[in-house]
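User: I've been going back and forth on whether these two constructs are worth ordering. Before I decide, could you fold them both?

Assistant: Sure. I'll take them in the order you sent them. The first construct and its structure tokens:
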Amino acid sequence: MEFLNRLREKSAIQKTEKFFPAFAFLGGFSWDSMTIGSKVYGSDLVFLSFYYVVALVAIYFIATRKNVDCCDNANEDESESKVLHRFYHKVLSIEWPQSWIDRLTWLVQFCFGNLCSALVICYFKSSGSIAAFIFVLVLAMLLVGNEFLKKKYENFGVCLAFFCLLGTMFFNFLIPHLVHGMGTFWFFLSTLLSVGICYLLWMKSLRDFARNKFFLIAPITISVVLSVFYLANWIAPVPLVLKQQIVCKNFDRETYSCDADNLDFWQRIGFKGLTIHKDEGDEIYFMSSVYAPAELKAPIEYRWYYKEPSTNKFKLTDKITSSRMVIRGGRDQGYRSYSRKKNIPMGTYRVETAYKDGAVIGSTSFKVLDGQPENGFVRDSLR
């Protein structure tokens, strides 16, 4: 112990200790990345719900940690429940010692960290656009910041703001698993549910300062901003996850197989764009598989973009959808679907697989070229 104490006195060690929370975060996040896969199990939802409920209880007691004589002024008539009266006086109106405040703030930090870590992974895997990636990056920054905010969680307003954000994201992920559906209605239900719980927390808190309406500004603002982001398709369409994409020709509907260009080394590692070679009259197919939880149904569409040579910018040319393009969840390798184009001009294209009229699940760019590929074709298929 004496050796450790001397070691901790060194300036280099003291500077390093400031980053210990970040090291702990990276370890926990890496573990979550390995254990939370594209397929979410019922036990995962139970654990996330547990963290949410524990955070709810801890925040409530943080807001009631000081002695308040709110019940002393009440009329103590015989009709009032003695149990409730005793609960208010002996549990909610006690003065929490600093040691218990530290435990409560640690509990909030622990639950927020686990919730945020899982949500970052799940939303990242469903992100198919730059805007959705930026939103996930903001969540990741909050996740790192959570490791340094333990003392800040003594502030009821800070707790309420983080709780509203994580609650909305959590309910938006949880509800599709429960109702087997997703869309605008369910997202706004998630938002209202989260901000409603925050409002009840504020209403039930017994501390005079906690009843300040100022603390409701952050949850309401966060809810409005998230709603705008959702309507702008900047929030990933969880829990949908893209599994595979293929651009090809000579498609076989029975086996979901087709002829694709045989990739060279640079294309395989992503340093060179994909290509598909065709002869006159060939149809070009774009196939994708999207994972969804069991029994969930969600319509999808394919958005074809063509890169205009004059402007060097992608322009939307087609939105392809039909009654068959409805994901039916439960297949581990994902629901398989495809779109096709006839008489397609040579050039560069981008195709997005997206929730119908909603956010992008995934996309890929490729060039359509004439003739035969240098490495020939290979028979590929969606698993």
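The second construct, handled the same way:
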Amino acid sequence: MSRRGFETAAEAVAVALGPSRTKDLAGLLARGHGKGRALAEFASPRVREAVAGVYRAMEEDALPRAEAAAYLRGYVAAQLRARDAVQVRAVWSGPSSPGVPVRATARVLAEVIAEAREELLAMTYAARPYPVLTRALEEATARGVRTHVVVETLAGARGLLSGREPAGAFASIPGLCLWHWVRDRATDSFGRQHAKLAVADRRVLFVGSANLTESAARRNIEAGVLVRGGDAPQRAAEHIVELQRLGVLQRLCP
């Protein structure tokens, strides 16, 4: 019998939870726990929606909980085997050397942005308008990608950044939502939002030294790593989303 509704829901929850937490959900199902207990176990709103979707699909497909648990465990096993297909590639920009390919960091970032179909999360310390990246972000938001960028602020940089606010680099992009780090005065007052990364659909992660500026894109020696597959892209995205949920990161847009 076809279980397409449940299979779709199971895939969504496995992506949202990751292998370890999906096995936790399978354990709850195997022990006969209902939706209320499962939703209490998984607090993040996005995760709760995926978990609720599993229980809803089970009802619609009249699927026993033990069978649903077995399916989730099997799906996790397949996810873990797929880790063998992870691709990790170093990305350099700047002067070249024999035998080491050099690509413009901005081009790699633009390619990551272009791959996003549902969600794009990015972080940068400094930012200045740069047409290659601006165009890629405009195209992403135009095709309906949820696009969130975390930036440093002049106040947060405490004199180490000058000129316009980094957020101003994205002011012309409709639909893009900006975030910043709200420091705890007791513990984080001298900290900086110094991460530089982009995650597309929790499948592709680029992390490196480059800010979203023309200098980083065209003139500097910059190094980064492009990761396709595996847990790293998903975990990076989950961390950002959880910091948003907890209020550590707060919106700069209306």
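Notes on the second construct follow. The first helix runs from residue 4 to 30. Residues 151 and 167 are 6 Å apart (CA to CA).
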